[in-house]
Amino acid sequence: MPQAVRPKSDFLAVLAERGFLHQCSDLAGLDAKAKSGELVGYIGFDCTAPSLHVGSLIQIMMLRWLQKTGCKPVALIGGGTTRVGDPSGKDESRKLLSEETIAANKAGIQQTFAKFLRFGAGKTDAIMPDNAEWLSGLRYIDFLREVGRHFSVNRMLTMDSVKLRLDRDQELSFLEFNYMCLQAYDFVELHKRHGVVLQMGGSDQWGNIITGIDLGRRRGTAQLYGLTSPLLATASGAKMGKTAQGAVWLDAKLLSIYDYWQYWRNVEDADVGRFLKLFTELPLAEIARLDALRDSEINEAKKILASEATALLHGRAAAEQAAETARRTFEEGALAETLPSVNVPRHELAAGIGALTAFVRAGLVGSTGEARRQIKGGGLKVNDATLDNERATLTEANLIEGCIKLSLGKKRHVLLKPEG
RNA sequence: GGGGGAGUGUCCCGAGCGGCAAAGGGGGCGGACUGUAAAUCCGCUGGCUAUGCCUUCGUAGGUUCGAGUCCUACCUCCCCCA
Fold first, then answer.
1. What is the pLDDT of residue A153?
2. Å from A211 (CA) to B18 (C1')?
3. Which residue has the higher pLDDT, A120 or A165?
4. Which segment of A152-161, A277-286, A388-397, A408-417 scores lowest on mean pLDDT?
5. Which of A31, A46, A107, A170 could cross-link A78 (Cys pair, CB 3.0–4.6 Å)?
6. CA A92 – C1' B8 distance (Å)?
7. From residues 193-252 of A, which are strand B contacts by CB within 7 A?
8. Exposure pattern of A302-323 as b/e (b: 16+ CB <10 Å)?
9. Between the CA of A244 and the C1' of B16, what is the distance in angstroms?
10. For A226-273, what is each residue's pLDDT tens digit?
11. Which residues in 254-283 of chain A line strand B, with CB less than 7 A from it?
């Protein structure tokens, strides 16, 4: 992106040097606004899942920096827009979610924001409105006359979110077609209610954001600004946030803190520097030093990345415990009692549990069939000994220090602990 | 409204003379090599109380010893004409 001079405001300076900036509707104008200390910016999050995942982390970090540089962040919960579904960047329509699901998802997502932002009533305290507040009560004809007349269908058809679907002959329902109108309306409404003048988002949100700025101009509100972050992919091109086990959730109930730490520990070499800048708050000089490490030395940088990123989400103590668990497990080959664990009733263990069943229970494999296959491939271990007999039974005799260590491959470990 | 085409292994794409648990990719998982990396090579990639049983090819029926494959109706989508 064009960037002749270094931004004068702390906010944009940080975003620029840490790699958050992709596009901006008016960099100079926004810079002046941020410099004045009156900047209120928002990012919208739909409640399509019970928790946010790593893919949203870059957005959350932008809000965090906004607050840290003296501005006011608004985390908009899309309780209303989730009922419509954003077609941006998606090949197919999403399944419609029920009201109950949306409400439950919303509750889960709200908890995550509390870890990154300071909420309250102060000038730079974060707030978390829900667009259902103003979208649910909209009346169709009124909305069309007051807002709809400002939208040009000609223009909407040229938006990537719409155009890509049409070009590929993929269905785009009228419901989804309206999404950008609602998002645009959100922007203007947030300006009215909370003085928001900036909307941020991933690069796939550019069209929706611009539409909002446009609507603001046509309706005579103050100048609005848009800013997007680059679409994040790993160095080898995969989308961030998905692994075979599923998404990398930010909620510890869905992904253990240890597994979260491991996710960052296992990033590709080529991503380390970029991720340190985006997902930690270490000084840039320190990051430059870490990024310069090569070969096996870069593992030190990965550990720091893992601990710093985990600390931001789950706290310093939990991050250090995850680091220690990993150190004992990988570097000493010792049994770390703090590995993720699954409980089994003591009487079941006394009677003997089939090894296949045990691995399924531990969640390491999806079925006994898969367990059998992994055994053939030498992928399962019990207490670090490769399991070669699918009829093996686990009993209390297998307990070491009160638990049984089950492993899939070299990296995934779960402790089976007797209870009761 | 008329004509033509398509829906395949619940991750995706895609072959499939009536004997099919169904070719081939991609992705993913495991093994080897490494540094808990990348690249490369190899194996696996429906379920189960497992030398057998059960469930899968848009839905519901039918023909057949046997149907993803043939017939009928229906659903969904795409293209052309009006």
1. 83
2. 57
3. A120
4. A152-161
5. A46
6. 19
7. 236, 238, 243-244
8. bbbbbbbbbbbbbeeebbebbb
9. 29
10. 999 987 777 766 666 655 456 788 998 888 899 999 999 999 898 999
11. 262, 265-269
Q: 3-state DSSP call for residue A383?
A: coil
Q: What's the pTM?
A: 0.89
Does the interface predicted TM-score (ipTM) exceed 0.90? no
Tokens for A285?
């000089």
Rounded Cα distance, A379 and A376, in Å: 8
- Are the CB atoms for A34 and A69 separated by under 8 Å? yes
What pLDDT, on the 0 to 100 scale, is given for residue A241? Answer: 63
The bases of strand B with some atom under 7 A from any protein CB are 27-32, 34-39, 43-50, 77-79
Q: Is the CB of A332 under 7 A from strand B?
A: no
CA to C1' distance (Å), from A170 to B71: 32
Nearest residue to A212 (alpha-carbon basis) of A200, A195, A203: A200
How many Å does it take to go from CA A87 to C1' B10? 22
Asked if A41 and A198 touch (Cβ cutoff 8 Å), the reply is yes
The one-character DSSP state at A82 is: G
